[in-house]
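Hey team,

Filing this mostly as a record. A colleague (T.K.) asked me to run one chain through the structure pipeline before their review meeting, and I want the input and output archived in the tracker in case anyone asks later how it was produced. No errors, nothing strange. Just documentation.

Input sequence:
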Amino acid sequence: QAFFPQHFDVVDAAGLPWVGEFMSYLPFTIHRSHLQLLRSFLQERFGASSFDEAFARLFEAVQYGPCAASLRASDKSRVDPWCRARPSNHALSMQSIAAAYLYQRH
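Output structure:
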């Protein structure tokens, strides 16, 4: 069992409410059809035209949090210096996102 949230940032970045740690129990199995639903949800959440683009934006949001949008800006001189120096944050756990998504939306 997990005694603390291990992947809160990734669930939060996906816009899902935190309900619990889903990384505690393995194996984690889902239906194949759920993957397409999850991909579509992430594309919509991040306003992306493809899942690849949505995944890249999700990764940015998890790694850089509020700095993600400013780091994508074309004018890098306006990026807060703290954002440029900020170390990467947390690992991106697709298991945590999938479980939170299925719990909330399925």
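Quick notes for T.K.: Residues 48 and 54 are 5 Å apart (CA to CA). The chain has six helices and no strands.
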